[in-house]
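Hello,

Our lab assistant flagged a job as stuck in the queue for most of the afternoon. It eventually completed. Since we weren't sure the result was trustworthy after the delay, we are filing this so someone can double-check. Below is the sequence as submitted and the structure that was eventually returned. Let us know if re-running is recommended.
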Amino acid sequence: MKVALYPGSFDPITNGHLDVLGRALAVFDRVVVAVLANPRKSPLLAAATRVEVIRASLQGGELGSAAGADRVDVVTFDGLTVEAARANGASSIVRGLRAISDFETEMQLAHNNRRLAPEIDTVFFMTEAEYGYVSSTLVKEIASFGGDVTGMIPAPAAAALREVSGSR
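-- returned structure --
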């Protein structure tokens, strides 16, 4: 069975993340979405909330036409990504690319991960062009000013952002 780990903060998960996940499901038998639960960072949404949001998005059919939400596990991790991959039986790490500007950083991470764990490869998936401008950071900023993030994030993520911000 081909298992991949899709790590990230997912604070919040975006439709671009879901697009990459759908692409990974077309290649791998199982994908483990690994939510970074780093106590040294200050995410907007708690790790448990991010896990709930991802699971609700998958149950709500937010993957769109991509089948296979039943082949997705959602877990938290802290520490090295390669150790999370090993712990979840993954031989690949999935990373998404929005634009060429993402590639340099992602390539550096991939090379470092390969040095730490030569048995684990990194696989890159380009997100659909319509999500090329979407990032969790941008979504949080827009939402903090009351902007409309519909179409950028799944409905459960939008609800979690509204709850945290106390807005309608």
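-- support follow-up --
The delay was a queue issue, not a problem with the job. The result is valid. The longest helix spans residues 100-116. The chain has a mean pLDDT of 92.
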